[in-house]
Amino acid sequence: MSDETASLAPVNPYLVLGAAVVLPASGHVMLGMPARGLQFLFFMVILGWITMKLAPADASFIGRHAGGFLIYAFAILDAYRIARIRHAIWVHKARPDGDSAGGNAPSKM
User: How far is Cα 52 from Cα 39, in angstroms, rounded to an integer?
Assistant: First the structure.
């Protein structure tokens, strides 16, 4: 990783969260992980189809596609979690001392 890419701020976690809520897998694409987003999309479709076939006829739309909605929720949480971790690491590295621990312990132990 070069110094130029290390100094760039990561994508705002709230922007990733909003994109992931609006369009499935778009949060992962914003994070540079399109393959992971496609995996989530694949399992959304597969589990949505399975629950549609297994659900009773009088179930609601959400009930008939519950498997797909479950994976959709996991995809949103996963994209947001990755964005938050990257942002926290970037904030930590941007500090002048690089350590938030208090006290007078030496930094190089």
Answer: 20
Q: What is the mean pLDDT of the chain?
A: 86
- Cβ(56)–Cβ(66) under 8 Å? no
- DSSP states along 54-97: HS-TTS-HHHHTHHHHHHHHHHHHHHHHHHHHHHHHHHHHHSSS
60-87 confidence digits (pLDDT tens): 999 999 999 999 999 999 999 999 999 9
Residue 27 pLDDT > 80: yes
Rounded CA-CA distance 53/64 in Å is 8
